[in-house]
Amino acid sequence: MIAAIIGLCLIAAIASLCLGLAARKFAIKVDPKVEMVEEELPGANCGGCGYAGCHDLAKAAGKNPQEASRCLLITKENLCRIGEALECDLSLGEKKVARLHCRGGKPQAKAKFDYVDVLDCVAATHLWEGPKMCEEGCLGFGTCAFVCPFDAITMSDDHLPVIDEYKCTGCGTCAGSCPRNVLEIVPQSTKVFIHCQSHLKGGQIRKVCQVGCIGCKKCEKACDFEAIKVIDNLAVIDNTKCTQCGQCALVCPTKCLINQALSKEEEGIFAP
Fold first, then answer.
1. 109 touches 84 (CB < 8 A)
2. Which long-range contacts (CB under 8 A, 24 or more apart) does 262-271 make?
């Protein structure tokens, strides 16, 4: 019995020694800069920065400090601490948010059939391209709201996504999940945008949606800065020229052009 106990103790001691030597031999050396950067990052691992997660972003920032500013959730204070530690000047870029290119909710957009299957936008597209007659519009089953890691999207009574720009980080998860590509990530300062992406002609769009762009060119004629053009029956805004005066939104007959800089009363529209 004593010999067995002594034998087990010797085996345990040898095993411990081997494990200790192996840990030293195969230890992965971590750059202290990477550890410091990762401590300042939010740890959400949303992927909005373009990296797989916060650890990968921290490794990239250890080699190129400017990469740290790609984080969409980092605060100015955390970024400053990273800059001080890495001995460089870092500043936050402009915040980006998700915007919806559709106002054709349940009352405004006509349906081809009643859909009673899985309440998922991707699943709905497999059944005759979805239940809406407009094949470019939001399907309204809330896949974007479900996948949003920051609870920044809720669904309205009209079955359209409502984006809370305070919570939205512009990570792009919602846009990537949308089979109709009606969500776009844009700088938050962009106030004038179009709630439509259909290229149907005016007569055709009126048959499927009450609030789609009819390509009437009234917006194009009203713009004094040549910032909006109707291309292939759809208004397209050049944000490098747009002054956000809102004249295009004021003359739009279907109110698919939105100017957030104006009040709803000034625009004469209702929120989607």
1. no
2. 271/162
Element (H, E) at 97: strand 96-100
191, pLDDT greater than 90:
no
Q: Could you tell me the sign of the dihedral formed by the alpha carbons of 22, 24, 25, 28, in that order?
A: positive
Query: How many separate domains does the chain show?
Result: 3
- Measured distance CA(262)–CA(56) in Å, rounded: 41
| Candidate from 183-187, 225-229, 253-257, 259-263 with smallest mean pLDDT | 259-263
Choosing from 188, 213, 232, the residue where a domain stops is 188
- Classify burial at 89, counting beta carbons within 10 Å of its beta carbon; exposed 0-12, middle 13-18, buried 19 or more: exposed
pLDDT in tens, 84-128: 888 888 877 788 899 999 999 988 999 999 988 888 999 999 999
pTM, entire model: 0.75
